[in-house]
Amino acid sequence: MKKIKVGIASFGMSGKVFHAPLLAAHPEFELTAICERSKNEAAGLYPNTRIYKSFEELLNDKEIELVIVNTPDTTHYDFVRQALNAGKHVVVEKPFVFTVAEGLELIALAYEKSLLLTIFQNRRWDGDFLTVKSIIEQGLLGRVVEFRSSFQRFRNFIPPNTWKEAKNRYVGTTYNLGSHMIDQAICLFGLPKGVFARIATLRDNAEVDDYYHIMLIYPDIQVSLSAGYLMREETPRYTIHGTLGSFVKYGLDPQEEALKSGSIPGSTHWGEEPEANWGILHTEINGKVVRRKEKTIPGNYTTYYDNIADCLLRNGNPAVPAIENLKLIRVLEAAFQSQELNKVIFLE
Prior knowledge:
Layout: E1 4-8, H1 13-24, E2 29-35, H2 42-45, E3 50-52, H3 55-60, E4 66-69, H4 76-85, E5 89-93, H5 100-112, E6 117-120, H6 127-138, E7 144-152, H7 173-189, E8 194-200, E9 211-217, E10 222-228, E11 238-242, E12 246-249, H8 255-260, E13 279-285, E14 288-294, H9 302-314, H10 322-341, E15 345-346
Parallel strand pairs: 1-2, 1-4, 2-3, 4-5, 5-6, 7-10
Antiparallel strand pairs: 7-11, 8-9, 8-15, 9-10, 11-12, 12-13, 13-14
């Protein structure tokens, strides 16, 4: 079996927790090289993988066909451009880029060189989101009229020496978690007509935004997305109301914690949630009111790399086309414009 030779551009959390385990466990990929600049963890975990100290060394490796650009967000545009110019296919972490103009330039470059360019929107394969999508598609709630998504974290201090807390217009919770939550909303409901946002810095001594409440404007559904770092008490991850009923789901997909603990992706019971974490479906089915726990569909991030293999080995189509992900970038740009101008920013 032909294997796709892959190089990972960074071995921080994204590389160590997500990409390396998913690629190492996948039969159609060979984890050929990892770039680890300051630490020396990768060699111990992946002894058969080449270790480089710079991105340039990684790009100069002629064997590498696919590069995972999972470096700090502010480097994505430049590193993707370099990788494409080096003739490599590219998977880039979210956020893809910071502006639509940057994205269009990279998409044109990938097209010119006949290379794959796609974004790692792994939370499309969270079990809770797959369940929400299935419930909506089955019409179990009737016509959906309200969709609320919330991501709660509690970290009331500023960790030292991390780029994620360094003052920058594009570094913060909105571009980080917002990239996931807006992408999910667009998957369900399409590009909104407009955006109204409140983006704030709430923690003492913080230099980046750590809170947002974004309203996506659609003609017939109310959509609100929120996240923050001062949310100690859990609230629902999803709340959805329709003309027939409601669905409420607490908790987070278990895959990230499983990967952190060293579990092998795709192993027995991978992505399964205990019944205690299943959401509540309260609706009307065939004229009868029902209220029950709804089993969470098991999440599976490996599906993302199944698709990448299908693209590169069998001429398949990317599940997350870069051009499609520009809708997300448009919404993020509009959210900051809305905060600045205190008004709805219309997209169409």
